[in-house]
């Protein structure tokens, strides 16, 4: 079957496997967006990237949060079963500006429980990556995964 040339496939790729030029392009784009660079020339100089590489990748590489069109995300947690853990987790989620849509918690087995949260992230005050980083730092959380995003 022939693929329509106007259709572009997208892939979700971990940052650590991206070529350095793509990472620097993302850094330069962020600097321009946040006003930390006055021009493309200024941004590429600051991140040590050629302008040609910047223009090659600028319309093809994007941070995850900018391509999530639907503002609903589902997170999976594997956490320690002790008093107050879910409350602390939900407090951090709420303080980030997320609205909890659903909560599902399994019955704890061997001192661990699984929790799945569906969140409306349309009004988030922080980046999704920053929220995930702060959640992963909690001592009672063994694992945090993004299960998906969508409506």
UniProtKB/TrEMBL annotation:
Tell me the InterPro entries matching this sequence: ACT-like_dom_sf, ACT_dom, UPF0735_ACT_dom-cont
Gene3D superfamilies the record matches: 3.30.70.260
User: CDD domains, alphabetically?
Assistant: ACT_PheB-BS
Xref: Pfam families: ACT
Could you tell me the superkingdom of the organism this chain comes from?
Answer: Bacteria
Q: Where is the ACT domain?
A: 74-149
The record's section on NCBIfam families has:
PRK04435.1
Q: State the family named in the UniProt similarity comment for this chain.
A: Belongs to the UPF0735 family.
Q: What is this protein called?
A: UPF0735 ACT domain-containing protein CWS20_06145
* Source species: Cytobacillus horneckiae
């Amino acid at each position: 079957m022939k693929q329509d040339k106007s259709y572009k496939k997208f892939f979700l790729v971990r940052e650590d496997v991206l070529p350095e030029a793509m990472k620097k392009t993302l850094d330069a784009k962020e600097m321009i967006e946040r006003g930390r660079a006055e021009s493309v020339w200024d941004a590429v100089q600051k991140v040590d990237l050629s302008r040609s590489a910047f223009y090659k990748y600028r319309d093809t590489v994007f941070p995850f949060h900018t391509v999530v069109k639907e503002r609903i995300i589902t997170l999976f947690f594997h956490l320690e079963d002790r008093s107050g853990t879910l409350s602390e987790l939900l407090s951090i989620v709420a303080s980030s500006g997320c609205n909890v849509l659903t909560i599902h918690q399994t019955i704890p087995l061997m001192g661990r429980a699984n929790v799945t949260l569906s969140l409306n992230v349309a009004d988030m005050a922080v980046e999704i990556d920053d929220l995930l980083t702060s959640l992963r730092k909690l001592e009672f959380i063994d694992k945090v995964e993004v299960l998906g995003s969508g409506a």
